[in-house]
Design a protein that fits this description.
Blueprint: H1 2-21, H2 28-35, H3 39-42, H4 49-74, H5 78-84, H6 87-94, H7 101-107, H8 114-137, H9 143-167, H10 170-183
Helix pairs in contact: 1-2, 1-4, 1-7, 4-5, 4-8, 5-8, 7-8, 8-9, 9-10
Amino acid sequence: MASSNSREAVLAAAKRSAMARGYNGLNFRDIAAEVGIKAPSIYHHFATKAELGAAVARRYWEDTVTQLAAISDEAHDPRMALRRYPEIFRKSLANDNRICLSSFMAAEYDDLPDPVKIEVQGFADVNVAWLSTLLVDAEILGPDESEIRARAIYAAVAGAQLFARGRADIALFDTMIASYRAAGLLPA
C-alpha cells in the first residue's frame, strides 16, 4: 500500500510540475523533495524520465475522460455539456495559472520521447472524440462535419487558455470563450 501511495504521490507531484514547466521541467530531485522521498526512490516506480512523463500524460488524459463523462452525465442535454467544456481548461488557470499539461507538452513535441508523444496525442484525441460526439448528439452538425468543428473547438479553447496564462489573467479566458460563443464556434 505504501508503494502505491508513493507512486500516486510522485504522479501527482509530476503532474503539477509538468503543468507549470512542461516535460523538460520534470526533475526527479524536485519531485522527490515535494513528495518527501529520496530521488532514487522514484526509479522504483519509473525507470526513466520518459516513463514518468508518459505515465503522467496518460493519467492526465484518463482523468480528462472521467471529467468529460461527468460533464455529460450532469448536463441536461448535449448542448449544455458542450457549453461546459471550457470549464476543464479554466480550472487549470484557476489553479495557480497552470496550463493544460498536454498543451504544454505539445509545445515541446520535438523534444518528447515517443511514448510521451503518444500520450499527448491521446489527450487531444479524447477531447476531439467527445466534442465530435456531442456536436452530432446536439444536432449541430452531422457526423461528416463534426470532427473538423471539434478540432476547432479544442484548439480555440486551448489557445484561449494559453493566451490568458501568458497574461496571468483568467478574465481574458472568459472573454475569449464568450467571443467563441458569440461567433457560433461554441454553443451559446
